[in-house]
Structures are given as C-alpha cells and as structure tokens.
Design goal:
about 400 residues, mainly beta, Porin, 16-stranded antiparallel β-barrel, about 5% helix, globular
Length: about 400
C-alpha cells in the first residue's frame, strides 16, 4: 500500500509540474490581435419557502420562509492567456460560508482546456445529473456536482469529450454550521474525520469519456479511483466508483439515465473495517454506506411561453434509488459509539416532481420532494444513506414529503 501511495503522490506532483512547465511555451505563442480580456462580477440571491410533512404531525414549525443563499461570482475571460472562474457562497440558514469553485484555466486550443484549483470532478452526467433544486441521490454521497482541489484537462473532438483529472484533496473548508455537531462547511459532500474515524480523501484520479451527437446528446462512462487517509494510523486505503450515463435531447424533451456503483475501504482509529464513513457538507456530517449502487432517471419537458416576464417552463421528474450492499462491519456514530451491524442497510428512495419557471434573471423551482430513508427528508436529520431508521432502532422509514419553492435572482 505504501508503494501505491508513493506512486500516486509522485504522479500527482508530476501532473502539476507538467502543467506549469507547459504554460510559458503557450504564452509565448500568443499573438497581438487576440481578443481583449474581460472581467464580470456577478452573483445570486435566493430565498426558500418550505412546507414539510415528515414523521411528526404538521405544526407551526413545519413551514418556514428563509434566505437560502447569497453568493459572489468572478469570471475573468482572457483569450490566449490564463483565465479565472471563482464562486463563494454564504448560507445564513446554516450559519456557514465556503468556496464552491475557484480555478485558473488556460485554452491550449479551441478544443483543449486545463483547469487548476477547485474544479468540478468529471464524473457522471455534467454539470448536473438532475433538473430540480434538490439534485439526485448521487449528490448526497459526493458523486454529483462534486468539486475538489486539483488539475483537470478537457479535450473535445467532433464526436467525443474526454476529461482527465487528478485531485490531491477536497476543496477548502469553511466554518462548521452554527447548529452542527462537527464536520466541515463545504458545498459538495466529502469524507470528513468524525466519531472514531480520522478519515479524509486524498489522491483521486478521474477519467470520463462521452460520445457526442449532432443534436446535443451524449452517452458516456466515468471511472474514479482515490484513497481514504486515516491520520491517526497514518494509513491509506482505496476507494473507487464507476458510472454509465447519458444525457439525451429530443425536441423539447430531455432524459438523463445513470447507473453508478461505489466502494470505500475505510478503517476506524482502532483499525477496524467500517460499514459507514462520515461525509459532510454545509457544516453538518452524517453517515454514508461504504458500498452501494445508485440508479437515477431524470425526465424533463421545456415549454416556451410569453407571459409577461415569464419566458420558459421546464417540467421534470427526477427519480433516484440507492441500494446499500454492506455486509458485516462496524459503524461509528458522532458520539463515538461503535455499533456492529450484520445485515444489509435499508435502501433509499428520492423522487422530485416540479417545474422551473424562468423570468429574466429570476429562476424559481417549485418542487415536491418525496423520500424514503432520506437524510434530509426526515425529522431525524442525517439518517438515510447509511444504516437507516430500522438499523438504528429509531422506528420505521416513512414516506416523507416536502413542498419547496426556491426563488433565485442571478446576475
């Protein structure tokens, strides 16, 4: 394992060195008649209206109207030179803030671009595997719209797009949530040190290939391999994931099917194999199964209208199913308690039905979110994609519903 770890470290360092070595030669090739650089500073302000029906009866606390997010975006477009893409987010409801993305980019040609910094992991359907405000289940285990710290190279031909990436570690952390029990403030889910397992993600490699059609559709596959580092034991273990996916357009219709499998070999600070690890985002961690497969299917229909400021309605339904494949092992709770689990964990279901209303710079999602054994759609926050309600002896999983309206002004 030490040999593999050293190889991954050397390979990652070589990629970074190679990237910076090439830059001066391409910069010398710039010509005087290139377009002038441009700078755009923008952002967004979003509000959230909620009505939820979970395990408990509906009362005054079942509805709320909150400020969801405000963010700052900086885009420096520099044809022939080094550009910048940066986004920082603030979440008043959670009492935390963090960087979502921040990279330097360079176009070696019209078809080849490199990005260095906090950039999107090339895995599955991009940019999103969903149409709704909630994303799909892969997001909640760090496999949709994930952003990490590293280097990515994208090559596009007439019929193919290839992405190659190396990520040394997850994106930088913000402060923990004001009411969280630990974990880290970040946009996308990553393994975090919690309970009796001092784990973090390191040395991740990604390869993604997609066949492109003239109609804007694509069919592809993704492969990811990385490591889990236990700082208490100074030990590296492997983790991997693969997916097959498609993003198909036909007239006003769009379909996004995807199937993925992932596996993580993690140990706690006593060296015991784990059935769950803690993953964190928005400053709040929860347990995630170390092995599972997830199937998703997104359907949407886009309809242009002329209703005053409203120009488009996008109707959709996004379905996700997660089957945990865990056998014998242990799970470590945030309290430090260790439980031995001998049965497979409960499955998780998510279905989002809704419509996106576009009106100039204002985009509003009307979502009916339905979940079974879901970490967010429950009174027992965080219980779902790990052991589940029954395994933790907190009752049966119920069919929970949340009506959610997200109103965002983007500029």
């Amino acid at each position: 394992m030490n040999t593999i770890t050293n190889f991954l470290k050397i390979a990652g360092a070589f990629l970074l060195l190679f990237f910076f070595t090439l830059f001066p030669f391409y910069l010398l090739a710039q010509t005087a008649d290139e377009e002038e650089p441009s700078l755009h500073v923008g952002g967004a302000l979003r509000f959230n209206m909620i009505l939820q029906s979970y395990e408990s009866d509906i009362d005054a606390n079942s509805s709320s109207f909150t400020m969801d997010t405000w963010r700052i975006n900086v885009l420096y477009d520099n044809p022939g030179g080094i550009g910048l893409n940066f986004e920082y987010r603030f979440y008043p409801t959670f009492g935390t803030h963090f960087i979502k993305q921040g990279w330097l980019d360079y176009d070696f040609s019209d078809r080849t671009q490199a990005q260095l910094g906090v950039t999107q992991v090339p895995f599955g359907n991009l940019q999103y595997n969903s149409n709704n405000w909630w994303f799909s289940l892969p997001y909640y285990v760090g496999l949709e719209d994930d952003h990490d710290m590293g280097l990515k190279l994208t090559r596009t031909s007439e019929n193919w797009q290839w992405d190659f990436a190396y990520f040394f570690q997850p994106e930088p952390e913000g402060p923990p949530a004001a009411f969280g029990t630990g974990g880290s403030g970040r946009y996308s889910y990553d393994v975090v040190p919690e309970g009796n397992a001092s784990l973090s993600e390191r040395n991740q490699f990604n390869i993604r290939g997609a066949y492109l059609t003239a109609g804007g559709s694509e069919v592809g596959a993704s492969l990811q391999y990385g490591q889990l580092y236990n700082s208490a034991l100074d030990q590296f273990d492997g983790r991997y994931a693969f997916a097959v996916h498609a993003d198909i357009n036909s007239g006003n219709f769009n379909i996004k099917p995807q199937f993925l499998y992932y596996n993580m070999d993690g140990v706690d600070d006593a060296g015991q194999d784990l059935s769950t690890v803690f993953m964190g985002a928005y400053g709040i961690p929860y347990e995630v199964s170390t092995e599972a497969w997830i199937a998703t299917l997104g359907l949407s229909y886009s309809y242009d209208v002329d209703w005053g400021p409203i120009t488009n309605l996008n109707f959709y339904n996004d379905f996700s199913y997660m089957e945990n494949s865990v056998g014998d092992g242990t799970t470590n709770l945030a309290s430090g308690e260790t439980l031995t689990l001998n049965d497979d964990f409960q499955h998780t279901v998510q279905n989002i039905t809704g419509v996106l209303v576009s009106a100039g710079p204002v985009f509003t999602y009307f979502d009916i979110a339905q979940g079974i054994n879901h970490p967010w759609l429950t009174d027992n926050f965080g219980v779902g994609v790990g052991p589940g309600h029954e395994d933790l002896d907190i009752g049966d999983s119920e069919y929970n519903i949340r009506f959610n309206i997200n109103i965002g002004f983007y500029f």
